[in-house]
Amino acid sequence: MFYDRRKGKYRQLRKPIKSIVSITALGQAVISAYLQFPSDARGRPDSLLGNEKLYPSIFNDDHGLKFFRACILIDRRCDDFVKATALSDDQKYDLRYYVTMLATCELCGKAQPVADDISAVLPKIETELTDTKLTWCLQTAQDQYDKYGGTDKAAKGREMENALKEALSSRYSKPSLL
Description:
single chain, 2 strands, globular
């Protein structure tokens, strides 16, 4: 993979387009998979990428290359899966980053994975991010999307995002040992 920090650099070097990762694409993948703000990744990525306080959380060198590679591979797998469905183009666009957030949690087995958790799943993405898991992720996201109106307003809003985070917390909460 080639991280295109200077727009068009790797395209000019004739690298395969599928192997080039733009700053926006990487930012959106990290925002949805790690920071868990899929509404922002979908509707306002530039506002977060331009935010001086959040930028270091997105592009933190301490995360390491495995982390960034895992985020982009999870997001691309989710994007390919969502694009292959019979949903409308608007629905696909609205749900993609929610599926990325849910799929990351599924792979990590946690409601709020940390950077090391995401890095650790890198070797498992191809084998464990199955269509079955992605179907669950898409259906879960779509249920909330429909509940909140099924429009871009729902996908850009915090209500759907918060409802999915609550569902993740319930799904991964550990039973008490009483």
